[in-house]
Amino acid sequence: MPPVADLLALTSSLPVLDVDVGDPVVREGERTGAVFVLERGLLHVTRGGVAIAEISAPGALVGEIAVLVGGDHSATVTAAVPSRLRVAADGAGFLRSSPDVTLHVATEVAQRLQLLIAYLADLQRQYAGAPGLAMVHDVLAKLTDRKGAAFEAGSDREPDPLY
Amino acid sequence: MRLLLVSDLHYTLPQLDWVVGQAEGFDLVVLAGDHLDIASTVPLDAQTVVILRYLELMAERTAVVASSGNHDLTERDGHGEKAAPWLAAARSVGVAVDGDSVEVGGALVTVCPWWDGPVQREALEGQLARDDERGGRPWVWVYHWPPSESPTTWTGRRFYGDADLRDWIDAYRPDVVLAGHVHEPPFKPEGSWADRIGDTWVFNAGRQIGGVPAHVVVDLTEGTAVWWSLLGDEQLSLADAAFTRTVFD
User: Fold this and answer.
1) Does domain A7-108 have CATH number 3.40.50.300?
2) Domain ranges across chain A
3) Which residue from B17, B114, B145 is facing A130, i.e. has the nearest CB?
């Protein structure tokens, strides 16, 4: 595999977005179609109100998953310190704009997936007695073989989601 | 025949773990719907894979019945009515699901799907009529939403039950109906986890936080039922005409 191009170098012509502490970059459940590249700063990622990650590496991507799967943003990203991002408003167009960009994004996503699988495999090994963790391998195998079914949740007869 | 009733686990993994751990001690484990949680951050697609694996683990240990609830509906059927077709995959590992009728330990168990439109409702009526003709007793129904005008549907502000089920209980007089859906009734002084309607006992264990789900153990051989929750436990005799709560004394 050739070395992956520096995404900051590839995005030097994109417009910038400056965000202050607490400003959202994207919100969970919204669909912007944009992809962001962190130039400098620190971002907090939350999902369902739970903190799940911090982003601080220059060149890190935000919003690319929603663009790749064609869905809503699955997490909220807010600035933890004054931060600067580069904005590709047409995220899908940006991902197709050059082979270097596409390869960079694919590599980053693959690296994250590799880390996640390694972590889950270890959880499975260490907590083998708990059915919910012991099944991680089986569940991952099935999920990676699926195409992401478009489910329509909820009932017409019982519209109250609390029950 | 001794069965364990849980319902409304709503993708609560520690509670599902608990059920797997308990399964061997029962002749039948009943999960009366709402296995999924439409409010979860985990996509429904992933939830169905996990739930099916849990059902498989339970079925390796004892007989298992799983009906659908309103949270389990994932797509529309050929009539445009919401349904839970994913649950049918559990049949391949021996779990009885929506539309099935099975004999377990001498009891006939009718697994009623959550019906979401007139076509599904008519199909369920047909299933009940066919099972009635079989004449199997004791006759146990698994039906997600408890019947109207029952303390097993008391939310603390109102009775919130299923009028159709009430009519079907009056018409067919099953021995036991295993339900869920309304989470609060067992935890309210005016509500309950058990109700006797004519010859029929209705049970709704309710929903609680923590690693152990609120649950009901029904022993059809001994003629007893026991409810367990963080609030306390209660028991009754199926031979009794009524039931008085004690956990609030």
Assistant:
1) no
2) 7-108
3) B17
**Cα–Cα distance for residue pair B203/B196, rounded to 1 Å:** 9
Do A139 and B49 count as a contact with CB atoms less than 8 A apart?
A: yes
Annotated domain spans of chain B: 2-237
Q: Which residue has the tokens 């990650």?
A: A53
List, for residues A19-47, the tens digit of each pLDDT value: 999 999 999 999 999 999 999 999 999 98
* Contact partners, residue B189, CB within 8 Å, separation at least 6: B245, B248
Which helix (H) or strand (E) segment is B2 a member of?
strand B2-6
pTM: 0.84
Which amino acid belongs to residue A155? S
Tell whether domain B2-237 is in CATH 3.30.420.40. Answer: no
Rounded Cα gap, residues A27 and A30, in angstroms: 6
Query: Cα–Cα distances in Å, from B19 out to A86, A149, B56, B181?
Result: 49, 28, 12, 18
A-B contacts (CB, under 8 Å): 82
Task: Judge contact between B190 and B184, C-beta under 8 A.
Answer: no
ipTM: 0.85
